[in-house]
Amino acid sequence: MEGSAQEKTIGILKEKYEDQILHIDTPYDFLTVSLKAEKIIEIIQHLYHHPEGKFQYLTTLCGIHYPDLQQIAVMYQLHSLTTNNRVRLKVFLPEANPVVPTLTPVFSAANWLERETYDFFGVVFEGHPNLKRILNVEDMIIFPMRKEYPLEDQTREDKNDSMFGRD
Length: 167
Description:
- This protein is α/β, with parallel strands linked by helices.
- The chain has a single domain (about 5-150), classed as NADH:ubiquinone oxidoreductase Nqo5 subunit (Beta Polymerase, domain 2), CATH 3.30.460.80.
- It has helices at about 5-15, 40-50, 110-120, and strands at about 20-25, 30-35, 55-65, 70-80, 85-95, 100, 125.
- It is globular.
- Keywords: Cell membrane, Membrane, NAD, Oxidoreductase, Quinone, Translocase, Transport.
């Protein structure tokens, strides 16, 4: 996305939702806008219907755990097929109670993406038509992609750490 396209997208956001923008960045030349969570669905609808935006394709939606901040982010990546522009939107939720409205009324494809994010990160998407685990067993009591669990069993004695460059 070239600079002027990024500026146009920022302008589309600022014309109605400047007070919702927390941070704007362009890592790897990919426009990333961090927003307050309260109006995220309204903001995405604005980008969807805006005549110069037309961000009508949901590329992905996922969770990101920030244990040092005690927050979980939900990242929405949108694409405009008519202008070939992309934007990444992020909202940050408290780790103890990550709740955000569902995006399924705007993008039906958000259904399984939200279920996966719930399954692995524990994010509750209010209003979701069928929010239940999609890959893990239903009676699982943890959310395995949160960074609060060790990567491997520390009590194992059958492994040789020197084989992995560890002493």
